[in-house]
Amino acid sequence: MMCLAKGFTLIELMIVVAIVSFLAAVSIPLYQGFVINTQVNRVISEAARLRTSVENCLLESRFVIGLAAGQCDPAASGSNLLFGDSQVGAILAPGTGVPQLASPLTQTATITASFGNNATPTLINSNAQVVWSRSEEGYWICATTGVPANFVSRACP
Known about the structure:
Blueprint: H1 10-48, H2 50-59, E1 82-83, E2 100-101, E3 110-115, H3 121-125, E4 129-134, E5 140-145
Organism: Halopseudomonas pelagia
Transmembrane segments: 7-31
Family: Belongs to the N-Me-Phe pilin family.
């Protein structure tokens, strides 16, 4: 009588486990790198949106950050990747923050976005920031601090 074996042998299962382990070892660090890259670019974009508000405030001679008449409301939206309270007293959703402006505004205004909350631990632990600085001539320059060199965006070195 002939017995037909059903299922996989131990060596076949070990080969499958080895292949899956190798793929995980390669793909997880790549995925984490893509996440960091995406978060850096998103924060650059979120902080950059405040430039228009700052320009309007400077043109209208509204230099104090606030909501009262004659004050500048930067209209910052809460982000789950940032740390920083609203400068105009707006109530932000839990776990969100906004980019910060130096008050009073000057011709050389600075927008600082600090990574926090749901940002990757790599960015939080290195105190990473995106800083948009305005020159007296009205040009905006972006720079990052604390962002690991391999994740620095070309848009904001």
